[in-house]
Every structure is written in C-alpha cells, then in structure tokens.
C-alpha cells in the first residue's frame, strides 16, 4: 500500500460503499487531507483522523461542496486548533 492510499485510509474506508461519484469523493478526500495538514496530523492511526473523516462526510451531507470550506468547517465544528 502506497503512502498516499495509507494517508487517506479513514476517509476511503468510510466512503467505500458510498453512492457518491468520483468527483465528490475527490473533493472529500481533498478536504480530509487539507484538514490533516492544517492540524499537522501525521499519524494516520490517530483516532482524531476518523472523527475528521466523519465530520467532513457529515458536512458534505449538509450541503457543503467545496474542499477548502469543508476543511475549515470541520476544524471549527470539531473545536480543534491548528498548532
């Protein structure tokens, strides 16, 4: 498994049976990666990565469709601060 796939595991695992198309999945994975970078999270096994993935999916279901906005809202709603 390559480093890129491993870094996206939480979001891919949660989206594997999703009815979303490739474009929507690309936006969600971009938002997920942006959020992890913003929070300086490098341990993809950290439980917070699952919470982030779930929050990004929840925000998309509420109508947010842009990766940058998904990331910013996920950080805000989870109440976490970048270092």
Automatic annotation (TrEMBL):
This is Uncharacterized protein. It comes from Bradyrhizobium shewense. The lineage of its organism: Bacteria, Pseudomonadati, Pseudomonadota, Alphaproteobacteria, Hyphomicrobiales.
